Automatic annotation (TrEMBL):
Claim: Transferase is one of the keywords in the record: yes
Family named by the database record: Belongs to the purine/pyrimidine phosphoribosyltransferase family.
Gene Ontology MF annotations: glycosyltransferase activity
Protein species of origin: Lapidilactobacillus gannanensis
Domain named Phosphoribosyltransferase: residues: 11-160
Pathway participation: Purine metabolism; IMP biosynthesis via salvage pathway; IMP from hypoxanthine: step 1/1; Purine metabolism; GMP biosynthesis via salvage pathway; GMP from guanine: step 1/1
Name under which the protein is recorded: Hypoxanthine phosphoribosyltransferase
Catalysed reaction, written as an equation: GMP + diphosphate = guanine + 5-phospho-alpha-D-ribose 1-diphosphate; IMP + diphosphate = hypoxanthine + 5-phospho-alpha-D-ribose 1-diphosphate
Top-level division of the source organism's lineage: Bacteria
Length: 180
C-alpha cells in the first residue's frame, strides 16, 4: 500500500496536532452544551474517532452515510442519502464531521436536509479543506488543514474504497490510476 504513495501531504504527527487543536476549539465553543457529532460515512470515520477523544466533555455521536463519488475521482454531482440519522435533532446543536470538503456538494445536500429538522445550530468541522475545487460556497466553521488541488488518500480518504487505513494523507503515484 505505502509503495503506491508518491508524497505525503499531512503526516501522522500533523494529524495528531490538528485533531488536538480542533478538539480544544470545539470544547471551548460548546461549553455547557451537549452537541451531537455527526460522522459522515465512510470517509470521516477515522477523524471522528480521534476528534471525539480530543473533545473532553459531554457529547453524543451519530452517523450518516451520504455518497457522491462512488469509485470515481470526480464528484458525480448527485448526492444520495444511504443512511439517515436514527434520532430527531430538533433543538440540538449539530457538528457535521467530514474528512474533506471538495466541491461542497455533499455538504450542501446535508445542510439542506438537516435545516428542515429545526436543529438549534449546525456547524461544520472538516479535517481537510480543498477550496480550489469548490463549486458551492459552503462555510466551514472548523478546518483542520487546507490542501492543494490533488486527489488524496489516507486517514479515511479512499481510492476505490482502499487506502482509508493509511495513518497519513498522501497522493498516489500516477501509475496506480493508469493500471485501472
Ligand atoms: O465536497 P464534495 O465534492 O462533495 O466531496 C467531499 C465528500 O466526498 C467524499 O465522500 P464520498 O462520497 O466519496 O464517500 P465516502 O466518504 O464513503 O468515501 C468525502 O468523504 C466527503 O464526504
Ligand atoms: O481528494 C479526495 N480523495 C478521496 N476522496 C475524495 N472525496 C473528495 N475529495 C477527495
Ligand atoms: Mg470517498
Amino acid at each position: 500500500m505505502r509503495e503506491n504513495i508518491e508524497k505525503t501531504i499531512v503526516s501522522t504527527e500533523e494529524i495528531q496536532k490538528t485533531v488536538a487543536r480542533l478538539g480544544q476549539e470545539l470544547q471551548t465553543d460548546y461549553q455547557g452544551k451537549v452537541p451531537i457529532f455527526i460522522c459522515i460515512l465512510k470517509g470521516a470515520v477515522l477523524f471522528m474517532t480521534d476528534l471525539i477523544r480530543a473533545y473532553d466533555a459531554p457529547a453524543e455521536i451519530e452517523f450518516m452515510d451520504v455518497s457522491s463519488y462512488g469509485d470515481a475521482l470526480e464528484s458525480s454531482g448527485e448526492v444520495r442519502i444511504l443512511k439517515d440519522l436514527d434520532i430527531p435533532v430538533k433543538g440540538r446543536d449539530l457538528v457535521i464531521v467530514e474528512d474533506i470538503i471538495d466541491t461542497g456538494r455533499t455538504l450542501e445536500a446535508l445542510i439542506k436536509l438537516l435545516q428542515t429538522r429545526e436543529a438549534a445550530s449546525i456547524k461544520i468541522c472538516s479535517f481537510l479543506n480543498k477550496p480550489a475545487r469548490r463549486l458551492i460556497n459552503v462555510h466551514v466553521d472548523y478546518t483542520g488543514v487546507t490542501v492543494p488541488d490533488e486527489f488524496l488518500v489516507g486517514y479515511g480518504l479512499d481510492y476505490k474504497n482502499q487506502y482509508r487505513n493509511l495513518p497519513f494523507v498522501g497522493v498516489l503515484k500516477p501509475e496506480v490510476y493508469e493500471q485501472n
